[in-house]
Amino acid sequence: LFRSNNEKGFFEDIEINALNIQALHAIGSEWFYLVPITSHDVQFLRENGYILQAVELLRKKIESANIFAFKDPRIAKISPFWNQVIEHLQLDVSYVIALRHPLSVVKSLEKRDGFFPEHSYFLWLDHVLESLRGSTGKSRVLVDYDRLIKSPEIELSRLADAFHLHLNHIELEDYKNNFLDPALRHTVYSPEDLLLDAACPPSVYEVFTKLLGVASGEVSLDDPSLQREIAALIAEFDRLKTIFNLV
Hints:
Number of strands: 2
Helix content: 55-70%
Largest sheet: 2 strands, parallel
Strand content: under 5%
Radius of gyration: 18 Å
């Protein structure tokens, strides 16, 4: 089922993925809704046992592991929920924020789900901004998908250095030679291509180009100036809640 959309698989934890879907449904949301998750939503999930369920699930998964990682794009949307889970368990947590060209996302969602470009651009912006908001103050690394495909050793070394992990070079070679497949990257765009698409909101281009600077090492994700700009964009996005409710 999953591999019909992604030939290599999505590598999502089935139980965590199912819990995220249940939690979103409980507050009347979906991964493709544009309305942000509020503190009232998180309180509702807490009162109805979802945070306890997540605590029990995560505790079970980490009990025999020194390092445990999980991935689900819904985490970006529902990060206020998971942050409460992590705080309750007092875990030492680090975040990998994946950055993909917005136009590639738009084309992918148009093909798979039939979404209008405007919808997909705002979904991209929602997930990226919530990833940044939800990981503020934590150990985090931003990785650009295209840079990973082009230079996997450099990008994985950045991850290892940032999180104080050992890079297994045998596994790295296997990953480079047997897993990564440039043919699976169906679209390649430059940042300026966004300026040619009338459906692209200016804020998407603005955020993407700034984060490319982070991915290339030109600026830190925690740079105060960048933080202020991101905070202003998040506030602007939050003010669109009424419009997104209508959508």
